[in-house]
Design a protein that fits this description.
Number of strands: 8
Order of helices and strands: EHEEHEHEHEEE
Radius of gyration: 16 Å
Strand content: 25-35%
Number of helices: 4
Shape: globular
Structural class: alpha+beta
Length: about 150
């Protein structure tokens, strides 16, 4: 798989990102206690994003204990298969390792038919929290729950 282009930047979206629009800034200010959001930028174009929820997810918490949830990791279609998803996940892991007050376990839900994402998560060291044949039903989606405890 190709590695991200060298000019990839990952930028946190904060209330400061919306100076001049107090209603949006307030929204992000309130969100900061529960979530963090970053965007990935290459060649001055947004190529993807990462959103972490800083409290344990309900699914799998009995098996993995307190955790931070990868709520969303997304790469825009024209930029997929260039390593940006991996770069975002690795960035999130490095960020979490620097947060002493947060659990150092990440969890996520992935659609059962998203074999590309499952392969990525497995290559990053994530494993299935519940047996692969058990599934989380979220609305119309059928998902697996995966997790990784960070070392160090």
């Amino acid at each position: 798989m190709a590695r991200p282009e060298p000019e990839l930047r990952i930028v946190e979206v904060t209330d400061d990102s919306f100076r001049g629009d107090e209603s949006v800034a307030y929204l992000f200010q309130e969100m900061r206690t529960a979530e963090r959001v970053w965007i990935a930028v290459a060649n001055d174009e947004m190529v993807g994003g990462l959103r972490l929820t800083l409290r344990s997810g309900a699914t799998g918490v009995e098996q993995i204990g307190p955790n931070v949830v990868v709520h969303t990791v997304s790469v825009h279609q024209p930029h997929q298969r260039r390593g940006y998803g991996r770069a975002l996940m690795e960035f999130g892991e490095r960020w979490l390792q620097q947060q002493a007050s947060l659990p150092h376990t990440l969890s996520l839900a992935v659609e059962v038919d998203n074999v590309v994402a499952i392969a990525l998560y497995e290559s990053l060291g994530y494993s299935f929290v519940i047996a692969q044949d058990e599934r989380l039903r979220t609305g119309d989606l059928s998902c697996f729950v995966m997790a990784k405890t960070l070392s160090g």
